[in-house]
Every structure is written in C-alpha cells, then in structure tokens.
Amino acid sequence: MFKAIIDLFFPKVCPACHDILKDNEQDICTNCRNNLPVTNFHFNNDNTVLKVFYGRVKVEHGTALLRFEKKGLVQQLIHNLKYKGQESIGVFLGDWLGGELKTINVYSEIDVVIPVPLHKNKLKKRGYNQVAKFAEHIADALGVIYMDDVLLKVTSTDSQVLKKRLARWANNEELFTLQNKSAIKNKHILLVDDLITTGATMEACITVLNKAENVKISVASMAIA
C-alpha cells in the first residue's frame, strides 16, 4: 500500500521518453528498450570502435552498446545519467553490456575494469562519476576487479572547449595521470566511458595507462557517435 501511494504521487518515469513506467517495467520502458539503436559490435566482430583509434594508440578489442543520435533516445539516457542523478541508468546499461561481454571469449581475458575518471572538482560538484556504475556492473558480470584509484584526472576542463583541449593534450600527462602502476602490471584492462566521439578522451587515458608495465587495453562505452 505504501509503495502504491508513493508511486501515485511520485511515479517512476522512463528516462528516455518520460512516460510513466508500468508495474512490470524497471529503469526504462519496454517500448524504448526495444527501440534503442543497438550496435551488436561485439557479436559481429565489427571494428568500428577500433577504427577510431587506428594509428593513434593500440587497442586490443573495442565495443559500444548503442549508437548515439542527436535528440534520440540514447542522448536522453546519457543526459539524465550525467545531469539528473539517475545512476540507475548506468546500472541498467552495465548489466546489459556486461551480460553480453561475458559470453564472448575475447572478453574473458579482461583482468580489470577502469572507468574514465572525472576531475575531483567536477566529481565534488556532480556527486558521482556517471561512468562508475556502468563500469562496476560490467566488472561484476565479467567477474573481475573494478579500479577507480589508478587512473586520475588532474586537469579540469571546460566542456565548451573540451574537444580542442583534448586534441592538444591527448599525448601527454596534462589531463590524466597514473598512480600505483604496479596494481595494473601485466593486466588486460577494459577502459570504460559513456560516449565515444573523436576518441580523444580515451586516447589520452590509454597513453597514460601504457606507462604501466606490460599492459593490454581494450575499450567499451555506452554509446558511439
């Protein structure tokens, strides 16, 4: 009865289309779930994600769960995850992608999952890293370690000029740094982010992670633009 009263005054809505969720729906409505633009890259041996990094940094395997379309369902999901505190979206997507990756042999080689970090100032302001739950649940599905204290973001960036700055900083330590290198020595890392566009953010992270001894790096994201 109490739950019914709460749902009456504060109904749960789908973060993609904003319709009220039915009793048998969680996190996202059935209609939106069925209409999300799934890539199936990891099932089809599609190299779309790897091509983003060709000639820049070495990536073993790469995938993205969804295709990002401006004003589309995926944009709504990521916006609500990043700016509306709806971390359950990260859990939902992490369980989804993690459940699929654990069925694929090449991802059984992963030893550790690392999220692309936020600068401490942005983390304090937002209260959470929007990639954290996504990465944690992928790690849980794969049965591997989740680490968010090895790769650190040391330079804060203004989102309005992020692309220009990343292009300039992709190959040095001004943006990210590494601590406790021994923790990832000889590890196959799955680096995780919310959205791949130019790949500059992940490239900067990979460049820094490669400073550890004998590491392999694969990448995964919620979406690719």
Task: Write a compact overview of the structure shown.
This protein has about 220 residues and is of the alpha/beta class. It has ten helices and seven strands. The protein has helices at about 1-10, 30-35, 40-45, 50-55, 75-85, 90-100, 120-125, 130-140, 160-170, 200-210, and strands at about 60-65, 110-115, 145, 150-155, 175-180, 190-195, 215-225.
Features:
225 residues; alpha/beta; Rossmann fold; 2 domains; five-stranded parallel sheet; two-stranded antiparallel ribbon; 16% strand
Shape: globular
What is the helix content?
25-40%
Largest sheet: 5 strands, parallel
CATH structural fold name of the largest domain: Rossmann fold
Specify Rg, calculated over alpha carbons.
Answer: 18 Å
**Please, what is the average pLDDT?**
89
The end-to-end span amounts to 44 Å
State the name of the first-level CATH class of the largest domain: Alpha Beta
In the sheet with the most strands, the strands line up as 1-7-6-2-3
Order of helices and strands: HHHHEHHEHHEEHEEHE
Low-confidence sequence ranges:
none
Tally of DSSP helical segments: 10
What is the number of E strands?
7
Domains, number? 2
Strand coverage percent: 15-25%
Name given to the CATH architecture of the largest domain: 3-Layer(aba) Sandwich
